[in-house]
Design brief:
42% of the residues lie in helices and 28% in strands. It contains 4 helices and 8 strands, in the order E-H-H-H-E-E-E-E-E-E-H-E. Helix 1 (19-31) packs antiparallel against helix 3 (56-82) and helix 2 packs across helix 3 (56-82). The longest helix is centred in the middle third of the chain and has 27 residues, at 56-82.
Length: 163
């Protein structure tokens, strides 16, 4: 390949993309902690009695709603808190390379079907589901308008400004 035109590393925590969703899930997880404790307590009492009860089906349903669902919310919130995007983008004249966890993927500019600019992030869509995100914060000394012009010239697609 020829010399790179741009070389960016986009590193950001996932919780910063949709803080409302993160805090909603986290609060649901925190509110579920008493339910988790109650579910464990009921299970211990039920097991001490030899799992023998006329209310076995009720206990199982209560266990699912009082223990499993709040625990899933809490686990999801913790994973979302820790998860981080760490992608490196190297732009060349005919294509760009995305490096994620040491694995490289070459993408032709013609593969991009849509470009959206949301807040401080560019979304380069390859189809309705798959997209690459590049934060304006990782552009460094490159001006956002210059990068947008580069994308427009190489993809023939003008970035759509979204709210």
């Amino acid at each position: 390949m020829n010399e790179p035109i741009y070389d960016f590393t986009f590193k950001e925590k996932c919780r910063t993309f949709s803080p409302g969703l993160y805090w909603g899930v986290f609060i649901l997880g925190l509110l579920g902690i008493p339910n988790i404790i109650a579910g464990i307590t009921v299970t211990i009492i039920w097991s001490v009695n030899g799992f023998d009860s006329e209310f076995t089906s009720v206990i199982m349903i209560a266990f699912i709603f009082c223990f499993t669902l709040p625990l899933l919310f809490l686990i999801f919130a913790i994973r979302m808190f820790r998860k981080e995007i760490n992608n490196r983008y190297v732009f060349y004249d005919n294509s760009f390379k995305v490096i994620v966890h040491g694995e490289e993927c070459n993408v032709k500019y013609s593969d991009i079907v849509e470009i959206k600019e949301m807040k401080n992030i560019y979304h380069l869509y390859l189809d309705n589901v798959k997209c690459y995100m590049i934060g304006k914060s990782c552009l460094g000394e490159v001006i956002a308008e210059e990068f947008e012009q580069f994308l427009t010239v190489h993809t023939n697609i003008r970035p759509k400004k979204m709210q």
